[in-house]
Records
---
Amino acid sequence: MTKETAEKYVIFDTDMGCDDAWALQMMLKAEKHLKNLKLLAITIVNGNTTVENAIKNTYRILDGLDRTDIPMYKGATEAIIPGTLRVGSFHGANGFSDVEFWHPNVYPNDINTLVQRQHAVEIIRDLVLEHPHKISLICLGPLTNIALAIKTYPQIRDKIGDVYIMGGNFKGIGNETSCAEFNFYMDPEAAHIVFDLLNCPIIILPWECCLPPSIDISWEWRIKTFADVDCKNIQLLNEIDRIAYRNCSSFLPCDAFLTAVFVFPEKCIQTKSQHHATIELQGFHTRGQMVLDHKQRNKHNVTIIETVYEEEVKKALYFTATS
């Protein structure tokens, strides 16, 4: 892995499920070893689990690498137009496959002591204004925090450096419904606002990019590679993933794929394309689907990563666990 030269300031927006944990682990290792990244803040959003659970999960990953110095900010607890919070599926009710790790003799009972007093939307505004055109928003959950920030504080819209999003789809393949990906389906209005109002580069790693033929990391490789890694976080993730992937033959830490693309773009991105994209808000069967202007009548507003180099993504994951 070679160092990138440009300095990158990061706000890490997460709903902290299993794959978010891999993504944060990778970001923290990149900050430590590559020296070109600075993780300024972690903002928490409702998605894989409740905000309260996501705070606990995030703190546990930070604690596992002795990085509790990185400030966390509590964000949106529901979508812009609230629906039913879906929990207890792939990530379990607590986001970490319902593995019990929050022991009262180790961690505080009041999780509010773990987060800053400022709201996530406010710190996004403050950091973007403090570092104009230098902030990268790494978005791993529903885009509620980002949408609220740019609607509430329009002065930051033209000052964000870029936005990296794990979410959406470009072939109509869904994972939450037949044709909608989870993050966009959980808050379609938020995704629509982000696409409609931002002029900065928006880089999307969609659901189909996490599937064959783009990438297919076997569960056997994942177990063999990380079973005996001497790292507190990886040992926890081994326990979490064995439950989450118990019926799976492939390992799909989608959020970590996005982080790999952000940290090592030249190595990991195989093919990409530019499109004008919007989000379907009204369709009975298609709410939350990302819709592309294939007729090219509108100006491009997103770059879609279509395929990645599987071996390079594996190297990024290995770097995450062992460096």
---
Amino acid sequence: MSHRVVYVENSRDLKLYLDSLKVVIDDNDILIPLSDVMILLIDNYKSTLTVPLINKLTEYNVCTILCGVDHLPQSMIVAMNGHFEQSGNINNQIHWNEDNKKLAHKLIVQSKIRNQRRILELNNKNINVIRKLDTFIEDVQLDDETNREGLAAKMYFREIYGGDFIRMNDDVINAGLNYGYAIFRSLITSVIISKGYLANIGIFHKGKQNRFNLSDDVIEVFRPIIDQYVYENLMDEDVLTKKYREELIQLTLKKIEIDNKKQTISNAVNIYFESILKVLETGDVSYFIEPLPYCYDL
């Protein structure tokens, strides 16, 4: 199973050599077997990739992310076909039962708020806010008609990052959140495609111009993992430096607990997504498996 994250910053040329990634740096060539690569992040605006390499990256289902001049993830290379049952899976996806989608939505929102609560508890935050999130979890309705997800997020972010924090402001905390979320979103997208589903047909995210609606559904419970890293490392920083960008990428190599076992985050995404699919297919909430937001080293 692939297990490496490759961060490319200095190379202008990336090529395919047999079944390996060939990274050319000055007069030196570095060969990395593609079977070992889980994520390839290219943070050099002047890098070039050959067509054979691009096709082989998609064949190996490598999560390939391209950064812009601001070093933030901007594009992703994905395969056209990801699974031998893709046509059947996409047909099922288009016709997912609406009641089951609402049920899956409710479970996801409750799980997300629970993980936010766990992060607040981990950091000894205000017990009254934690108790309020408990109330929100119980109050989530189908379609989240009373917007408990939004209300919980507002309280949660202000409790963990301070009362003046505003999501999407231009500051280092938001930069770290956006960077980490983008990395996880790309990894989740590669998992979705590998299973023969379309990332743009979501459960409750339905943006017409969003190619990653389903990815945005799946990522919700994993966001607190990034939130915790940002809280531990960026509260007193002014700039999202290369060091922190690399560490946010390396988060994908950590383990978390799911179904009472410690799994790599990639495996946890697979298990979690499969549990959502079973809820969508059957309407049985017992299939839903919730990942926890605490990270462990391999």
---
Amino acid sequence: MSAVTTAPVPRRSWLFTPATRPERFARAAEAGADVLIIDLEDAVAPVDKAAARRLALEALATAPARPIQRALRVNAPVTLDGLEDLLALARSPVRPDVLILPKTESAEMVRWIDALLSGAGCPLPLVALIESARGVAAVEAIAQASPRLTALFFGAADLSADLGCATAWEPLLAARSRLVNAAALAGIEAVDSPFFALNDAEGLARETQAALALGFGAKAAIHPGQVAAINAALTPNAEAVAQARRILVESAKGVGVVDGRMIDEAVARKARRILARAGDAAAGDPGKI
């Protein structure tokens, strides 16, 4: 008898919402977002930082009406606001599901935050937001910096400002590729930047497909209206799932052929990733196929 395998919880769509607008938090779940990002950083004016911190902790103390993971993006840890965010979180009895660290530029920064949270008895998973030239240059070391780290998050807007390039796919392709490779080396997730043109549905679809083709398993959104398209693009359809399951059946027998294509372990690994993205427990348990 096969061991019981739980299907992985999907984290395809990450929706940013300002911490100062708690009335919008429920819309993230209603839109179908997998992760609500309660933002204390870019979406909050400097004069509102303290109020945003209080509102975020109050929101985290209340269970969401619908199932959704909640992430908290603090301010950059090298700033006073960032330090106050971290201290308030460490002292609070409430926790988000994950903590997003903006402006991550070194492995030392990740290890320092890991030590701070450990000392406070705060077992929070971390996501490193890579959005500067320094961050890209150190991304491989950052990805390996802490067992708390569950994902690397690509920040296109800040990085394009740092590089002086357009906030477009082609100028940032090399940086995206390096982040995906670093995440793969560390065995963690890669989350792509939001698409910033709110009225360009075709552009969002193209960029999401390009991110998937490059190796990203998730994409951020800045408006609830973007969530459905992201989820659809990052969820394998029934045909892809059926083919992946056939591949794993043949792979269990050794080298085989599915739909005229030779099957080996490399193909089987891709099939497992497809099933994992579909939330299929068979991805980790061939006995369930």
